[in-house]
Design goal:
The protein has helices at 2-71, 74-85, 91-112, 145-153, 191-201, 213-217, 255-265, 268-276, 316-358, 368-385, 399-406, 408-424, 450-466, 497-513; strands at 116-120, 126-129, 157-161, 168-177, 180-189, 205-212, 228-230, 237-240, 280-286, 289-299, 305-314, 389-396, 432-437, 440-446, 482-489, 519-520. It is of the alpha+beta class. Helix 1 (2-71) packs antiparallel against helix 9 and helix 11 (399-406) crosses helix 12.
């Protein structure tokens, strides 16, 4: 019991250290995974940003070339100059002439994927929409930020805009020749073209365009609601209806996107990113496959968040990274457990060695050296607390005769049984029994009065007597019996523990002189 008690605190400490070590290992590996996963996600985000900017710039150069080719046509500038000078009522014939002049050019643009071609008068009024000729004559400055910026700067501008009829990427070019203002030309293209180019540059990814519902609703009924559908990724965002895709005619999300959409719709950080408009990357493992989702914000010419390009990319490196770190973690945990077991073995062995040095080798109870240490400790404690310290000195009656009659092996067995009976008779953890020497035992009873000590001594005497160990050579009884001397003191300055032992020894002598098998003191 004493040995297990001494081991309890080191074992609890070892268990705590092991748990902390294992938790630290797992936390470190988790942080390492997050850092490396973030790097993988960042690489994908950079690649998407570069691919997007490259696509937008490529089409800017293409549109710039088309613009240059348009204004080189000799009749065009004359028509624009004439339209600038005419009132609205006289413009329809000029619109017809302009439409017929550039009809073939516009058809070629449409085949190339360009959706819109605008002509503006110098005052910002729409001269002709090739994609919607009936909607001409309105002022684009009132509702088109891109046109306002281009008209104010008198310089080419481009960007994403929801628009009145189509959301898309717009390129605005003022037409100024030799300092003369002929108005402006605008060309627009749908996300399909950007999507197609992104897919060519990064074929391992899927892409979607989310458009802000609030900005679209501000355009009123001019945008056909059937062209856009709700995004399953998040409320407040729309995407183009599959039927309006001009490139693939099949804008349905891939199996990869469909598998991730439900997960992403519940991801709080991603939903917050959609609200705040900051670029966002998310590495994740779903159904044992690695993915990186990148959100690239697109702002309109007024700087408002208008749309998102969402990239979905396979990332098998995430699974490999996780598996490698889990393997390392498993190895580290096993090594930690093995180390803990090794330390535990050392602790047990040290405790066993300590037990060997503190316990009596025959009876298994405290030896004389341990008793002396405990007595000094309890004596100091009695001096501090003012509580009595009691001591029982015990002797097996006529033990020499027992050995002579039954032999030393039987005598050793008798000592062990008596020691066990004495130890079992002590009910308080603080009470200790030790082998004092030969057939003598001693009980140390902290915070016990003389009356309590006497009662316990009598209880121990009866317990040994109840063992009914035969003792044919005893002059007292036919069974093994003990005699006990009882002493009790409160430690005072100037007194010593040796005096307590001497008092108990004197009382033991009295018990033996009075006929043995009794308690004195």
């Amino acid at each position: 019991m004493h040995s297990r008690g001494q081991l309890l605190l080191p074992l609890l400490l070892l268990q705590g250290i092991t748990l902390v070590a294992m938790a630290s290992i797992m936390l470190h590996l988790y942080q390492q995974y997050r850092q490396e996963a973030a790097l993988i996600a960042q690489q994908n985000a950079i690649a998407l940003d570069v691919a997007y900017r490259s696509s937008v710039e490529m089409y800017r150069l293409d549109v710039q070339t088309r613009f240059n080719n348009l204004i080189r046509q000799e009749p065009l500038l004359s028509l624009l100059d004439e339209a600038a000078a005419r009132p609205q009522a006289e413009l329809p014939p000029l619109r017809g002439r302009l439409y017929r002049l550039l009809r073939d050019d516009y058809r070629e643009m449409v085949e190339a994927g360009l959706r819109q071609l605008y002509f503006y008068r110098p005052d910002g009024q729409t001269l002709l929409r090739f994609h919607a000729p009936a909607l001409s004559g309105d002022s684009a400055l009132a509702h088109r930020a891109l046109v306002r910026h281009g008209h104010a700067l008198q310089a080419p501008v481009h960007g994403f805009e929801i628009g009145m009829l189509y959301p898309g990427f717009r390129y605005y070019f003022p037409v100024r020749v030799d300092g003369h203002d002929y108005g402006a030309i605008e060309l627009g293209l749908p996300f399909d073209l950007i999507h197609a180019n992104l897919s060519r540059l990064m074929p391992q990814s899927d892409y979607a365009l989310l458009m802000r519902r609030e900005l679209i609703e501000q355009q009123g009924v001019r945008i056909d609601p059937g062209k856009l559908i709700d995004s399953a990724l998040s409320e407040g965002w729309l995407q183009e209806h599959p039927a309006y895709s001009r490139i693939t005619r099949d804008f349905a999300h891939s199996t990869r996107v469909q598998a991730l959409t439900t997960v992403l719709a519940e991801h709080a950080a991603l939903q917050q990113a959609l609200v705040h408009g900051e670029p966002f990357t998310l590495p994740l493992i779903h159904d044992s496959r690695g993915y990186v989702v990148c959100l690239h914000p697109i702002h309109d010419p007024d700087g408002e968040l208008a749309a998102w390009i969402v990239g979905y990319a396979d990332a098998p490196r995430l699974v490999a990274l996780r598996d490698n770190l889990l393997s390392l973690g498993l190895v580290a945990l096993v090594m930690t457990l093995l180390l803990s077991v090794a330390v535990l073995v050392v602790l047990v062995q040290r405790q066993q060695l300590a037990d060997l040095s503190s316990l009596d080798g025959l009876t298994g109870i405290d030896n004389r050296r341990t008793f002396d240490e405990n007595l000094r400790h309890e004596w100091r404690r009695s001096r501090r607390s003012g509580q009595p310290l009691s001591l029982l000195l015990i002797d097996i009656d006529h033990f020499k005769q027992y050995n002579d009659h039954y032999g030393h092996p039987a005598g050793d067995a008798c000592l062990r049984q008596v020691a066990a009976a004495l130890s079992d008779g002590l009910t308080r953890p603080a009470d200790r029994v030790a082998r004092y020497g030969g057939e003598e035992f001693v009980c140390l009873l902290p915070e016990t009065s003389i009356d309590g000590a006497r009662q316990l001594a009598e209880s121990l005497r009866r317990r040994v007597e109840a063992l009914a160990l035969p003792h044919a050579a005893s002059a007292v009884s036919g069974h093994v019996t003990i005699s006990l001397g009882v002493a009790s003191r409160v430690a005072r300055s100037g007194s010593s523990a040796a005096e307590l032992v001497s008092q108990a020894d004197a009382c033991l002598y009295q018990a033996k002189s009075a006929g043995r098998n009794q308690v004195a003191g």
